[in-house]
Design brief:
single chain, alpha/beta, Rossmann fold, 2 domains, 8-stranded mixed beta sheet, binds ligand PMT
């Protein structure tokens, strides 16, 4: 399973004997590197204890709708925003019926209404209950709303019956989850992305840099791999683990980043500039550590190459996406950058006061020539997947407009 590493999976457990298999499911998901949070209904707790699930997931298990430890006591909203996917396994006939009717009378049903991520159900129940027209109608309705039903499998059941209603095995469920993250929207596309800060030396021990951690750019690189692209990541100094299945080049200065991008840009379909490139460098770098003898010292700075601007001016340019880091007038300033640099798209974020830089979450305004969309506050991985989906949609629209 290639795509589950670092994915945030919300596992909902409802009341049914198959709940014992969910323990193994959590263990296997963690082995894949996924981050798992478990939400249990009251009746699920009769079949397996929250303590077991807490020990296996390494996180507190959530059971109550009103959670006083959550920010604003709205655990369902926090959990819905946190996850990349919701899997309910086992999903009982009762839970399917409640979900069909949009009920929100416990934590799990409420967060299913609040989540805007893929929702997967692994039904598990007695075969007669599954075949009942009421359950079949519910299954059809849920599927028509975009909810994915995984199984149920056919076979012998805990109650002694034989027939459809067994929950799929944990290994099969993991295979389906992995599939959720393979979108293939950028298959056969080459994508070059910059990420992280650059450093401009002052002397052998000091440099000018900024607060970029590289998280946003690395998340976009991962999302692009999931979308099937061939990805080249050109990264300034970060402390992050390099993404898998990505060709990484590590650089330090803006000029090194510029050269690495220009070497790679031929045959590139998409260029994304998520790096916080130092706009200026020192005109001269002192050979020895500068001594603190004077009350004031002057540093003469000169402009670094504008990597994004240069790529967008190529003929023909790749589909070029910039980022705009602003402390004020976000939309206005970002739009100016979009137009002045002749970009196809720009992702604008507010920075400063613990926003944008360094943090695990962010909020983006995606702007293009005749439109924009706001991506609400969410983990950077989730924003990255949404951004990649928006880019893929624009490229496909552009391509089909050119062929007609
Ligand atoms: O790395 P994180 O901690 O996760 O933080 C993410 C982020 C805030 C760094 C990221 O979301 C972001 O906004 N990146 C762009 C930061 C930036 O330098 O913005 P800018 O508005 O100064 O630059 C505009 C664009 O020009 C950017 O796409 C930048 O990469 C590009 N640029 C800037 C200068 C330069 N010499 N060459 C460039 O290519």
């Amino acid at each position: 399973m290639a795509y589950l590493k670092h994915k945030r999976i919300l596992l909902g457990i409802t009341g049914g004997i198959a709940a014992y298999k969910s323990a193994d499911l959590v263990r296997r998901l963690r082995e894949q590197g996924a981050d798992v949070r478990v939400v249990m209904t009251r009746s699920a707790c009769e079949f397996i204890t929250p303590l077991t699930m807490q020990a296996l997931s390494g996180r507190p298990v959530h059971t109550e709708l009103l959670d006083y430890s959550a920010e604003a006591a709205m655990g369902h909203i926090e959990l819905a925003r946190w996850c990349d996917v919701v899997l309910i396994a086992p999903a009982s006939a009762n839970f399917m019926a409640r979900l069909t009717h949009g009920q929100a009378d416990d934590l799990l049903s409420t967060l299913c209404l609040a989540a805007s991520v893929p929702l997967l159900l692994a039904p598990a129940m007695n075969q007669q209950m599954w075949l009942n027209p009421a359950t079949q109608d519910n299954a059809r309705l849920l599927t028509s709303r975009g909810i994915t039903l995984l199984g149920p499998a056919d076979g012998s059941q805990a109650c002694g019956d034989t027939g459809p209603g067994r929950m799929l095995e944990p290994g099969d469920l993991i295979g389906h989850l992995d599939h959720v993250f393979q979108t293939n929207t950028l298959t056969a596309k080459k994508l070059v992305i910059t990420a992280g800060p650059t450093r401009e030396d002052i002397d052998p021990v000091r440099f000018i840099s900024n607060r970029s951690s590289g998280r946003m750019g690395y998340a976009v690189a991962r999302a692009a791999v999931e979308a099937g692209a061939e990805v080249v990541l050109i990264s300034g100094p970060t402390s992050l683990e390099l993404p898998e299945r990505v060709f990484c080049q590590q650089v330090v200065t803006a000029r090194q980043m510029h050269d690495a991008v220009m070497n790679e840009i031929r045959d590139t379909d998409i260029f994304i500039a998520a790096a916080a490139v130092a706009d200026y460098r020192c005109s001269t770098i002192a050979d020895q550590k500068i001594k603190k003898t004077d009350a004031f010292i002057n540093l003469t700075l000169e402009k670094n190459p504008d990597i994004l601007g240069e790529v967008a001016s190529l003929s023909p340019p790749p589909f070029t996406v910039g980022f705009a880091a602003e402390t004020e007038a976000l939309l206005e300033n970002a739009r100016k950058k979009l137009i002045n640099k002749k970009l196809d798209m720009i992702a604008a974020n507010l920075v400063g006061d613990n926003r944008g830089f360094e943090s695990e979450d962010n909020e983006l305004q995606i702007i293009w020539k005749d439109g924009n969309i706001k991506l609400d506050h969410a983990p950077k991985e989730k924003l990255a997947r949404n951004l990649v989906a928006i880019i893929a949609k624009h490229i496909h629209e552009k391509n089909s407009a050119q062929t007609h």
